[in-house]
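ZP: hey, is the coenzyme A complex queued? I don't see it on the tracker
AM: it wasn't, my bad. submitting now with these inputs:
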Amino acid sequence: MASKIEIKPIGKKDTEWVKETTREKFGADFIFDAGKKKYPYKLPGFIAYLGNEKIGVLTYEIMNGSCEIVTIESLKEKISIGSLLLKKLKETAINENCRRIWLITTNDNLSALNFYQKRGFNISNVYPNAVTKTRETVKPEIPLYGENGIEIKDEIELELKI
Ligand SMILES: CC(C)(COP(=O)(O)OP(=O)(O)OC[C@H]1O[C@@H](n2cnc3c(N)ncnc32)[C@H](O)[C@@H]1OP(=O)(O)O)[C@@H](O)C(=O)NCCC(=O)NCCS
């Protein structure tokens, strides 16, 4: 399966799809973490394809030698989409002379915590109740509970030194 998946850069024609995919997963066309509102559809990134079907997306932002994974989403989990998107991002970050790749996830997101730590990322910061604050102020769309029935409260930052 992995050999049939192609990773291509997000193009202008994909803007609406990225916006809609973000809205479906994250409840709005923006995300808010590390104290900032971010619009994935305005960012560079990659789309995973199986034939003509879009099956995953990653958006990122490079700033001051750090590459942030703003969103990553597999529309079909556990067939290597996430790993292939991450591999492509790593190549890009190295080409852009980044020193690290980082991201924010939430305390309930066990699949993301598993995924990143098994791929060399370390927890670099924890922001207790950051999501609770965001829900109360900027983004009421954030659900109270995550998919594992765990209350979504904290932001967890992970990083990979490259
Ligand atoms: C986190 C996330 C991106 C991982 O993506 P994914 O496409 O499932 O990732 P992969 O398929 O590459 O790897 C997931 C697991 O499937 C396994 N896998 C991959 N291909 C497989 C196959 N053909 N058969 C069996 N297992 C397979 C991998 O080994 C991996 O397991 P491991 O981490 O225990 O080694 C995905 O769970 C997701 O989209 N979550 C929702 C959005 C989200 O929370 N994003 C993160 C917020 S920052």
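AM: back. The mean pLDDT is 96.
ZP: great, adding it to the tracker
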